[in-house]
Give the backbone structure.
Amino acid sequence: MHNQSTIPTIQYGAFSQRLYEQAAAHQSVIKAQLELTYRCNLHCRHCYTDPYNSKDFFPRELTLDEIHRLLDEMQQVGIVWLNLTGGDIFMHPQFFEIYEAAYRKGFLLQLYTNGTLFTKATIERLQQMPPFTIDISCHSVTASLSSRVRTPKRCASVMGTGLTAMVTSARRRRCCWMKGP
Ligand code: SF4
């Protein structure tokens, strides 16, 4: 029996399975993807947004008001998992305003990024309101192969630097949790 002030815990797998089953039974949508921007600091051969990654197309992106309205509507229809993508999300000039508004609404946020734009400031800000997942696109296992798909060619090493900073920061944070305040 649970204390009245205690919320019972549930394993993530059981939680998500239950939600998917309920959504299927009610034919409701619980997962959404929002493409915030065409902007990206890289160019990949296969990219479907790359042809729009130019100043001519930026005025056609969703405005901040439109994005806030979409977040409201997604919350109202019961979206649980919200994937934010681009282009690269960190190229959006108001990314953190959007991200933090979505976080406050309670979505489980999944971030898609090319992984080359992590800075100390970005990592620290994400740690204040951690996303559910971060997916980093990596198109090959070697830098030379990557450079055949992506430009600029040195982006694989930049991505490595960003990833190292993320992992180091996450480890440090975990150590702090283990040590306690
Ligand atoms: S990193 Fe992603 S968004 Fe950017 S050009 Fe490549 S595939 Fe497109």
